[in-house]
Design goal:
- The chain is built from ten helices and eight strands.
- It is of the alpha/beta class and 274 residues long.
- The protein has an eight-stranded mixed beta sheet with strand order 1-2-4-3-5-6-7-8, sandwiched between helices.
- The longest helix is centred in the first third of the chain and has 24 residues.
């Protein structure tokens, strides 16, 4: 009888542990406030630091991370939000420059009681926003992972060197972009000159797309490659091209994103040389 009772207790303990683990993965969802209004957010994963903070690109809300979300939240505390005008967040009349977006994210994190340090992950234009966050709040930033990030001079370079591509994007801006997308697109290079320089103590990694879809021309690639190199020089970071992946690396290659995040965490744990 005693061995049977012992086995039952063991099974009960395993079931309890499983249920607790499952409950830990259920995201906490709600709305958080900033000066620009309310923003919908999700928070999930085990209670540990640094907290991984996701910032989506132009036109995307937090649902863009659905593919990689379970991989990240299995091991990390992860926060994602819908910027104003995306997903479940109402639009705003507040400015949409990178500094404003970074300040909104910080206010949202504070309002949701999500303390630093943060490991910032940004895709496309969200990558530029996360770089600005790290420059404004370096002591709250444990590291930055950029996925196909928008370079601050990307649009100006396209207009100068690939006018056909620039004309196509201008057409999309006028016909496809929502008002929120147009506001973010138009303000993408604003405020940057007044932002403090990159903090060398903050480790960073970059993942770049291996394919550019309809933009995959020799002209476009020759324009983009110098910007990628400049990103690495600006941040003192290593960059890696993910072969076969399109612009949405977190959807096409979630395993590579998780791997890069783990390497960045290892770097964040090591003392930085100055």
């Amino acid at each position: 009888m005693a061995p049977l009772l012992s086995r039952r207790r063991s099974v009960a303990a395993l079931i309890g542990a499983f249920l607790l683990g499952a409950c830990a993965q259920v995201p906490r969802q709600g709305y958080t406030s900033a000066s620009s209004g309310t923003m919908a957010y999700a928070l999930a994963g085990p209670e540990k630091t640094p907290i991984v903070v996701l910032q989506s690109g132009l036109g995307d809300g937090r649902s863009t991370w659905n593919t990689v979300w379970p991989h990240l939240t299995a091991r990390h505390r992860v926060f994602a939000l819908d910027r104003p005008g995306y997903g479940d967040s109402p639009s705003t009349t507040a400015p949409r420059d990178p500094c404003q977006v970074a300040r909104e994210l910080r206010a949202a994190l504070r309002d949701a009681n999500v303390p630093p340090p943060y490991l910032l992950v940004g895709h496309s234009l969200g990558g530029l926003y996360q770089v600005v966050f790290a420059r404004l709040y370096p002591y709250e930033t444990a590291g930055v992972l950029l996925l196909a990030p928008t370079h601050p001079e990307h649009w100006a370079t396209l207009q100068r060197e690939t006018p056909k591509t620039a004309a196509m994007l201008t057409g999309l801006r006028g016909t496809v972009f929502t008002p929120t997308m147009r506001a973010e697109f138009d303000a993408q290079a604003q405020c940057l000159e007044g932002v403090p320089p990159w903090p060398p103590e903050v480790p960073a990694r970059l993942l770049f797309s291996g394919s550019f879809g309809p933009l995959d021309t020799d002209e476009f690639q020759s324009t983009l490659m110098p910007l990628r190199l400049d990103w690495q020089q600006r941040l003192g970071a290593s960059g890696e091209t993910v072969s076969g992946s399109g612009h949405y690396l977190h959807r096409d290659a979630p395993d590579r994103v998780v791997q890069a995040l783990e390497r960045l965490l290892d770097a964040a744990d090591k003392p930085q040389r100055h």
